[in-house]
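Researcher: I've got a protein sequence and the SMILES for coenzyme A. Could you write out the 3D structure of the bound complex as structure tokens? I'd like something to compare against our soaking experiments later this week.
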Amino acid sequence: MSRTPELSSFLQHATALDLAMVAGWVTSDEETDIWSGGPVSFPILLEECRLAIGWDHAANRTLIDRDHVAGFGQIIDKPDARKHLARIIVDPETRGRGLGRRLVQGLMHEARRCGARCMSLNVHPGNETAIRLYASLGFVPAENPEPGRTGRFLYMECPA
Ligand SMILES: CC(C)(COP(=O)(O)OP(=O)(O)OC[C@H]1O[C@@H](n2cnc3c(N)ncnc32)[C@H](O)[C@@H]1OP(=O)(O)O)[C@@H](O)C(=O)NCCC(=O)NCCS
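Model: Sure. Here is the predicted complex with coenzyme A in place.
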């Protein structure tokens, strides 16, 4: 199992077809909640999902690894040059190979390039795999500026 995807993986603009594939990686209410942060219901209906995750107002990115869509994430503009990373997910078939790290690093790189002052994300407090990944990349728990919508999640920030 390769732990070095850096040479063969990159981010690109996600299409609606990509979103359909990503939605297929989520197979239960609980997984949908963890992935979407709340606004998407299972089973996922694509048009509803697009609206719920603000598709038209976000930078939607897929991680391409060896010519396949291996991951997905969004960068959402927030006030004061904060860039919020959301809906991060890796294909269940390829988890644990370093692609999640590559995906988040790519989103962070793009956020910085687009002038981020800081980056933020919400993560389910029981999602230890994701929390460990985010912490290793510099994210720390912080006060959530939008607690009403996502108060049950752990809010983390990382300076740009
Ligand atoms: C979270 C997720 C994106 C991580 O992707 P991944 O490709 O499996 O992660 P990586 O292989 O790059 O591992 C990155 C880090 O995650 C942690 N990690 C990965 N697999 C783990 C496991 N089975 N147990 C504990 N920690 C784990 C480790 O800290 C790892 O760092 P290391 O490489 O230094 O050991 C992936 O598990 C996923 O898609 N989960 C479902 C959706 C989700 O939870 N999204 C996050 C929403 S906030």
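Model: The pocket of coenzyme A is lined by residues 34-35, 88-90, 95-101, 123, 127, 129-130, 132-133, 136 (CB under 6 Å). DSSP finds six helices and seven strands in the chain.
Researcher: Great, I'll pass this along to the crystallography team.
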